[in-house]
Design goal:
The protein is mainly alpha-helical. 59% of the residues lie in helices and 0% in strands. The termini are far apart.
């Protein structure tokens, strides 16, 4: 099996993600975008701010943000410093805060199982729809409920 971009034999098995040069470039681009996104989530959009938090040079952060080599040790440092999921950072599994909430309700499992049985195009459509729904804290009823809860329990 040959890689279509370089006409060299691909290293992986046919049909598997991450097998050719194109997949590798897409993977690196995705990882660099996740590093940027995570830094912005934590208010560290400047390379120097993230470098200072990680105790590395700005050149290293720039290299990682542009798809350069990222060691597992440095990936762990980034995940820890930005309080994000290492799985999300490296493999785009889950979400940046995936590691923070380990509880999955019975209803969430039920929804997930229903979603898994749907074709990819339907899954993508549902993800887009859900992304457009405001967070619960932005709903007027949720704000009122939170106020009532606060009044009932002063601690």
């Amino acid at each position: 099996m040959f890689d279509s971009l370089t006409a060299k034999p691909s290293r992986g098995r046919p049909g598997k993600p991450g097998c050719g040069a194109k997949d590798s470039e897409t993977f690196k681009e995705g990882r660099s975008q996740r590093i940027r996104h995570a830094a912005e989530l934590r208010g560290l959009s400047k390379i120097t701010a993230l470098a200072a938090r990680l105790s590395v040079s700005p050149a290293s952060v720039s290299k990682w943000r542009n798809g350069g080599h990222l060691s597992l040790e440095n990936a762990c440092s980034i995940a820890q410093a930005l309080d994000i999921s290492l799985d999300w950072l490296l493999l785009e599994r889950g979400a940046p805060e995936w590691h923070q909430d380990r509880r999955i309700t019975r209803d969430e499992v039920k929804l997930l199982m229903l979603l898994r049985r749907r074709p990819d195009r339907v899954q993508n459509m549902i993800q887009r729809v859900v992304a457009e729904i405001p967070e619960e804290e932005n709903f007027p009823s949720a704000k009122k409920e939170a106020q009532v809860q606060g009044e009932r329990n002063p601690f």
